[in-house]
Amino acid sequence: MSDSRGRGRIDAKVLPEEARLHNRSLILQTLFREGKHSRADLARVTGLTKVSVSHVVEDLLSEEMLCEVGTPELARRGKPPMMLEFNIEAFQIICVDLSHSTLFRGAVMGPNGTVLHRTDVAIEGRRGQEALALVVELLQTLFGQLSAPVLGIGVGSPGAVTFSGTVIRAQSLGWEGIDIKAVLGACFSCHVSVANDANLAVQAERSHASGSDDMILVRIGHEVGAGLLLGGAQLFGSRSAAGEIGHVACGVGTPLLCTCGKKGCLETVLASARLDTALKSSSTAEARHQVLVDAGKALGNVLAPLVVALELSEIVLSGPHLILDGPLSEAVRLTVRSRALPIAAPDVPVRMTVLGDDIVLRGAATQVMREQLGIS
Amino acid sequence: MSDSRGRGRIDAKVLPEEARLHNRSLILQTLFREGKHSRADLARVTGLTKVSVSHVVEDLLSEEMLCEVGTPELARRGKPPMMLEFNIEAFQIICVDLSHSTLFRGAVMGPNGTVLHRTDVAIEGRRGQEALALVVELLQTLFGQLSAPVLGIGVGSPGAVTFSGTVIRAQSLGWEGIDIKAVLGACFSCHVSVANDANLAVQAERSHASGSDDMILVRIGHEVGAGLLLGGAQLFGSRSAAGEIGHVACGVGTPLLCTCGKKGCLETVLASARLDTALKSSSTAEARHQVLVDAGKALGNVLAPLVVALELSEIVLSGPHLILDGPLSEAVRLTVRSRALPIAAPDVPVRMTVLGDDIVLRGAATQVMREQLGIS
DNA sequence: TGGCTTTAGTAATTGCTGTTTACTAAAGCG
DNA sequence: CGCTTTAGTAAACAGCAATTACTAAAGCCA
């Protein structure tokens, strides 16, 4: 009752059955994240009674979601416990990343985010229904590579994606108002999760690489976008476009004309194509350095108010390593420090993602796990 | 299970009893916000069965939280329904607003946010334990003015206040790490809600004056702070200081030295004392106009990235009406438009709160209602 | 007028939850 | 070898909501 974390309005009834699912998730999550536990351990950790734990575990064992892995050697008084473990081979997840400009990336993934099989297909300019057909084709290939039951399909799409899995608008794919979740759900009759690529990326970063519950992950590629994690929860935004910071005017140097028609957008100095040409047209090392510093300053200017207002504890960059990691990210750090932080405050770290190019795929897998099993 | 709104990690067990409370809130909220309903209406609206509704309503009637108000005259087929209404006299809420520099404001409030009795006390420089004692004294006075059972105490405090009701740091009151919720709870043995004043203000605005679920409310007074509402939920921040934007460098005009030691902070052009002196030292009307425009631009610069990244649909200002409402808020609007919005996009409205000086008191009442009854 | 239909609301049963209590199993300690 | 400690299960119990079957009270219509 005294849940003052400030959720939104109440809008749906709750059945006791959902409480059961919640407790099931609680147990599953404990085993997945903290490793081996006995039933008695689980009862202590989760606050449930031993009996309730036994019931849930019985279900999970019969679904082969867990396995019993014997008793520990550690000699103690009392009956030795039977340790339980999350069964890493219980299922696999099929993930696709549609955010690249030239190809769709696909993978069969394990529960812990490892890539088991990988298949990419060239887009070759396909748009609209053709692009959608290519995705279906890719998924069919991936289904053939499964070596365990499938938990679900995870899709990372560029553009604005609603919470319920409709792509409102994805410029590069020529998609507008396509309910991908419904389409793919009908094709493959299994669970489908769809989300914006940056949103998935930030989730992957949290799940695999960071303990932080409040961070922004900026994806720099053909376009510039970001995913926000606030209090451990993704931010979607009222029109499903939260984090789309590419077209904020950043107020550094001479404002350049953007593809959107405005001047001085962040993308005009930070999108990879623009950065590349600016770097190539710079004759000296100093000039190239300055290009990177300016881009970093631009990003820092946009991020500074966000860091303060949202109390972000980390800024993560995802994109071409060679360009981002160095003077650019350093400039971001310095700009945020000088514009946003109290003099004595510790820096907000600015770092590259450690998940590399698979970040969206891993985020898609995480998303499916969270929606299907309540594990995040 | 397919709750993809991206909550945080699971961290507590759920009992069937909590489902009951949830459904109770659902019914209470429907009656509070939408007015009269019969039991059958409630069943249709909430999705619960008639039987479940009857059970919950029976409880609520016995607690006198609801009242039966007869059958409607509208002649229809079938047994006429017995209409139910939220009992506006069921309880009262005691609220205090500690965010003013010279006095503590207190009120006994009704469930719908009306002020029933009002008592203020002068602070007269009291700090630390003395200030706390003064709050207790004020609350005792307010308890004497109750004419119905008390639902709880709501406290709006300046500074950083944790989700659990501890004031981490409130400069102006000399408070540091004081668990107000525990202290007052022990004194008065009733529910206590404590939150930052700006956070309460934004909640009041949502509840009483706006349908928007994504907005920022900027409080401009001795200091500058803001409260954020994202997807209908308050944002607290990892160290309970989300929204504290007063010390972001805003990059307008010549940077002035701030009390915090940095230069160019938003507060140096927007805090009411600074604004007042700047206005007084301006000899011409044009100069005064420019002061307001500059302040508005400064705020707009800080808000622009927030509006985009968080998809805010409203910017609300709270503070001295005469200063804020006019060129200043207009400058905010224009700055946000030019820095943040696509050329064809509709404006993000910038407006004054309609709740005036009682905004924190009303927010405190709302907070108590939400924590105690699940109504927001 | 009297039967039919419609709507509101309640009573009793059922099924699902987790808890409590009491028990068995298996180990070390002295 | 009995005592203690820990793990885990079995059976009875209590709270919740859904289902089914019912009563109450109105309008409709012949």
Strand content of chain A: 15-25%
> Largest sheet of chain A, order of strands side by side?
6-5-4-7-11
> Given the C-alpha coordinates, what overall shape of chain A results?
globular
> Main beta sheet of chain A: strand number and arrangement?
5 strands, mixed
Mean of residue pLDDT values of chain A: 93
What does this structure look like?
Two copies of one chain form a homodimer. Helix content of chain A is 40%, strand content 20%. With 376 residues, chain A is an alpha/beta fold. In chain A, the strands form four sheets. In chain A, strands 6-5-4-7-11 form a five-stranded mixed beta sheet, sandwiched between helices. In chain A, strand 4 (92-97) and strand 5 form a beta hairpin. In chain A, helix 2 (39-46) packs across helix 3 and helix 9 packs across helix 11. The model of chain A is unreliable at 1-8 (pLDDT under 50). The structure holds a DNA duplex (30 and 30 nucleotides).
Topology diagram in text:
The structure is a homodimer of 376-residue chains.
Chain A: H1 16-34, E1 37-38, H2 39-46, H3 50-62, E2 66-68, E3 83-86, E4 92-97, E5 103-109, E6 115-122, H4 128-144, E7 150-157, E8 160-161, E9 167-170, E10 175-178, H5 180-188, E11 192-196, H6 197-209, E12 215-220, E13 224-230, E14 233-234, H7 267-270, H8 272-280, H9 285-310, E15 314-318, H10 321-324, H11 327-340, E16 350-352, H12 359-373
Parallel strand pairs in A: 4-7, 7-11, 12-15, 15-16
Antiparallel strand pairs in A: 1-3, 2-3, 4-5, 5-6, 8-9, 9-10, 12-13, 13-14
The structure holds a DNA duplex (30 and 30 nucleotides).
